[in-house]
Amino acid sequence: MKKILFPTDFSEAATNAFVHALEFAKIVNAELVLLHTFEIPVYDSQFFPENYAAIYSSIELAKFEMFKDEIPKLRAIAEERKLDDIVIKHRLMDGDLIYNLKNAVEEDHIDFVIMGTSGVTDWTKFFFGSNTSSVISEVKVPVLCIPADAKFKKIKVVGFTTRYREKDKAELRKVLAIAKKTNAKVKSLYVKTSNSDVSEATIKEWEKEFANENVEFLVLPSDEVKETILDFILYKDVDVLTTITHKRSFFESLFESSFTKKIAKEVSIPVLVMHETE
């Protein structure tokens, strides 16, 4: 059975992402490990010599009580969606989020991380933010990012962006394996710019190799790469967009605030960030 790590601060965005985490756990037959981290403020012991330990204990106890109070709410969501048979475990850790997250991934042999963002208008902040950049770059497992207003719906189409590099094939196979479990079609996109170095022979070779899979290869000639990917998401009814970490800087720019709010709202979909195969 696979394991999904779900870091949560029990915010509305995180609770929305929890629904996606539950449904994804069902698709890939996984258990959920809920991670809540908190940082204890640094006090100078010389100013609090007598109640120094008591301050720490009271903060830890308060965090534990909040954690304890929130868990039943999440279990109620699982019951409501008839997903209460999914195994849910818990980790409450003191310290830096990224440090604890990396430790949890290694110690619990995590296969995926699923995390919520604070809203579609914060996509740029989310991808530039130190936490998310660190999670994506330092955690060597796929990360599914859920915008706050992306309501869960059945996954029918998975978008996959590629540059037809040989090492992208391994990631495509992983995506196809996930898609197969929910009977989804994978639509692979390559935006062919005027300085593209991908040959027709390479594209044909990919089409032949994946001929028996439920994947459609789209090659769209354009020098407006960002707009083309947005059009792809909108007009191909993409439910989840998969990108690979070499695209992260590009992906940050994809959701810049310079794009209209209308477009931003329409592309409020989960994004699965895969890691390059070495």
TrEMBL record:
Gene3D superfamilies: HUPs. It comes from Flavobacterium chilense. It comes from the Bacteria. Pfam families: Usp. InterPro entries: Rossmann-like_a/b/a_fold (IPR014729), Universal_stress_UspA (IPR006015), UspA (IPR006016). This is Nucleotide-binding universal stress protein, UspA family. Residues 1-147, 185-274 form the UspA domain. Belongs to the universal stress protein A family.
